[in-house]
């Protein structure tokens, strides 16, 4: 049983760090290199990971792992759509559903506003954890080091200490916000959908920056927090 648990932990760590080498995985997991190497060999033989190339072998997940994740996402979308539709009706704005994947969140569903001025993000787009409302909502509930923080706009938080302070506020109030930190024309508030082992998704209300003044953020924040809580309670245990 412990071998199975170790292999699953290694698979999860590869997904987070890919492409990742044995030494990096061993340090991240606190496991001996020999244990990690055995797990990598098993996962490779089963088709879950493959070499990423280079002089030193580094590993990344295969489409098999991604296909399993996509099937899980289909179930999540089915449960989320009624919650998202109610949130769209209450706000009149675009609603996004994203899932964590490595160092980003990935858009898997959206319900768009009927207003002519809108921000349209393609399904499958990846947003950085530290520079998006969905990303910060997820990151606030993850235990991982915060170091390199690239800037995307003039308002992106690039100081690790400032980001840690903001994530503490996210946990306290229940939602994250984005003030043009990924793209200067986008504003959003988002809340995490939590499973037994941490965040499984995030919901957001996304608008052009001009349609989310400071006095509206707490109201939208409360609505998206309630919606994320409803979705959390609706997921199979």
UniProtKB/TrEMBL annotation:
PANTHER family in the cross-refs: HELIX-TURN-HELIX TRANSCRIPTIONAL REGULATOR, ICLR FAMILY, HTH-TYPE TRANSCRIPTIONAL REPRESSOR ALLR
Protein known as: IclR family transcriptional regulator
Top-level taxon: Bacteria
Domain IclR-ED: 64-237
GO BP terms in the entry: negative regulation of DNA-templated transcription
All copies of domain HTH iclR-type, residue ranges: 1-70
Gene3D superfamilies: 3.30.450.40, Winged helix-like DNA-binding domain superfamily/Winged helix DNA-binding domain
UniProt xrefs under SMART domains: HTH_ICLR
UniProt GO MF annotations: DNA binding; DNA-binding transcription factor activity
PROSITE patterns associated with the record: HTH_ICLR (PS51077), ICLR_ED (PS51078)
InterPro entries linked to this entry: GAF-like_dom_sf (IPR029016), HTH_MetabolicPath_Reg (IPR050707), Tscrpt_reg_IclR_C (IPR014757), Tscrpt_reg_IclR_N (IPR005471), WH-like_DNA-bd_sf (IPR036388), WH_DNA-bd_sf (IPR036390)
This protein's UniProt keywords: DNA-binding, Transcription, Transcription regulation
């Amino acid at each position: 049983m412990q071998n199975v648990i170790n292999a699953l932990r290694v698979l999860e760590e590869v997904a987070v760090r890919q492409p990742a080498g044995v030494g990096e995985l061993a340090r991240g997991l606190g496991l001996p290199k020999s244990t990690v190497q055995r797990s990598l060999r098993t996962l490779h033989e089963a088709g879950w990971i493959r070499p990423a190339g280079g002089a030193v072998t580094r590993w990344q997940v295969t489409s098999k792992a991604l296909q399993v994740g996509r099937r899980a996402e289909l179930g999540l979308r089915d449960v989320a759509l009624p919650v998202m539709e109610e949130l769209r009706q209450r706000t009149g704005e675009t609603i996004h559903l994203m899932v964590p994947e490595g160092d980003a969140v990935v858009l898997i569903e959206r319900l768009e506003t009927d207003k002519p001025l809108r921000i349209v993000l393609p399904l499958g787009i990846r947003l950085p954890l530290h520079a998006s409302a969905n990303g910060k909502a997820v990151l606030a509930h993850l235990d991982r080091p915060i170091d390199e923080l690239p800037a995307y706009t003039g308002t992106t938080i690039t100081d690790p200490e400032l980001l840690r302070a903001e994530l503490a506020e996210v946990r306290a109030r229940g939602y994250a916000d984005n003030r043009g930190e990924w793209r200067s024309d986008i504003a959003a508030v988002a809340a995490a959908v939590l499973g037994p082992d941490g965040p499984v998704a995030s919901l957001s209300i996304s608008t052009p920056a001009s349609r989310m003044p400071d006095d509206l953020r707490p109201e939208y924040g409360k609505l998206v927090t309630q919606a994320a809580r409803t979705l959390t309670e609706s997921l199979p245990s």
